[in-house]
Amino acid sequence: MPTEIRMPQLGESVHEGTLGKWLKRPGEAVAKYEPLVEVITDKVNVEMPSPFAGVLTEVLVQEGQTVTTGTVIALIEEAPAAPRAAAAGAPGTAGPPHPAGPASREQGPPAPSSPDGERTGAPAPAREREPAARLSPLVRRLAEEHRIPFDELVSIQGTGASGRITKDDVLRYIERRGAAPAAPPAAPGAAVAPGEAPARAPGDRLEPLTAMRRTIADRMARSAREIPHAYGAIEVDMTRLVRHREAHKDAWRAQEGVNVSITAFIVRAATRALRAFPVVNATFTPEGIVVRHAIHLGIGVALPDGLIVPVVKDADRRSVVGLAREIEAVVARARQGKLTLDDVSGGTFTLTNPGVFGSVLSVPIINYPQAAILAADAIVRRPVVLGEGIAIREIMHLGLAFDHRVFDGALAIQFLAHIKRQLEEFTPVGDSPEF
User: Fold this and answer.
1) Closest CA to 208 of 240, 257, 174
2) Which end of the chain has less Cβ packing within 10 Å, N or C?
3) What is the residue-wise DSSP string for 221-284?
4) Is 168 a catalytic residue?
């Protein structure tokens, strides 16, 4: 009997995911832990490994569909020699299914995909289609944007698997229908109702949201909507640390084989501050504040089409060199599109580093459901009053956005001051980067 493959848990408080691209087709052999399908998670696309070796027999959830954790997305006929893993504990599985049921198994094997990821193929008879169930989120959004009524939408002849209406089908229908504007132009200065798209003027261009951009939008809107954000900022004199690093960075690279970045020093100081103020490493819940014991620190990485946050696990147990090595590795995997589910799950605190782009003062949004996010801005040479004189120093702003339900401003500034003291009073162990 075929083994069910389920949508895995994508991270804390993330209970659904969107399938990006199937990397295997029905009838193809798949090895255990071999990438099976791309899953779009919070701010990142990851490759879900197959928890079993065998042959992919059926795909139950198509590309572009969003399903809840635990939903059966495919069936695999396990290889005879492959040991049967328990569904609840196998890598890449989610354990007991979510109350939402699995997707319909009447879709059959997928036909070849078009460049946009929609399934294509010969149209199926209308009686075989279940229009409402087979409309992907992308198709529904296109219909909403172009004001296509539901009865008109479902009348479109689909070219996807089992007659499914694809994005290309809708775009061709819109083209045939004419180039009429999606909505009548609003009068200058007219208010736009909540949730209503503003009218587009001649020359405007609609950039469809990518799955990553839409996920970011949803998560950031949720964070801003549900978390009462408060902010604190502090100036840090980085001169001593910057000079020590400049004097030794080439030797460190030759000795350790890694660029020991300023970020690694900031992360090291932040993890010590998290140990001193553990409530910052927390999550608010209706039952109370959950203070995390492990410090799994996320690092914001900018990509051309969005931002992702790979996680350095047990960051407080690593040295500066160890942090530099792990940060370099996860950033490289992020930019190469090779992050795994484990790379982006379990974060308890986040560092964003807009300073690499020249920002001097940032007000970040908390990475839901964490309690705080630290922003490190650019190190800028500035004249500073020292005693009775003025000196040129290397100054950086550190900012903290925090959940005011979890802790208050006094503790936030104490947390920042703890990091400030470590960086300003930097005392290395010999010529090493450790402090």
Assistant:
1) 174
2) N
3) HHHHHHS-EEEEEEEEE-HHHHHHHHHHHHHHHHHHSS---HHHHHHHHHHHHHHHSGGGSEEE
4) no
pLDDT in tens, 347-365: 999 999 999 999 999 999 9
Determine which of 109-123, 172-186, 374-388 has the lowest per-residue pLDDT on average.
Answer: 109-123
pLDDT in tens, 365-419: 999 999 999 999 999 999 999 999 999 999 999 999 999 999 999 999 999 999 9
Q: Across residues 186-197, what is the average pLDDT?
A: 56
Question: How many Å apart are CA 64 and CA 117, to the nearest integer?
Answer: 7
CATH topology identical between 3-107 and 226-424: no
Annotated active-site residue in 250, 305, 342, 408: 408
Number of H helices, E strands in the chain: 8, 19
pLDDT at 217: 85
CATH 3.40.50.1220 is the classification of domain 3-107: no
Contacts of 137 (CB under 8 A, 6+ apart): 18, 64, 65, 66
CA atoms of 114 and 164, how far apart (whole Å): 13
Structural Rg of the chain based on CA atoms: 25
**Domain-by-domain residue ranges, the chain?**
3-107, 126-177, 226-424
Note the pLDDT tens digit of each residue in 120-130: 444 444 433 44
Q: Which of the residues 377, 404, 418, 431 is marked catalytic?
A: 404
| pTM across the whole model | 0.65
Quick one: CATH architecture of 226-424?
A: 2-Layer Sandwich (3.30)
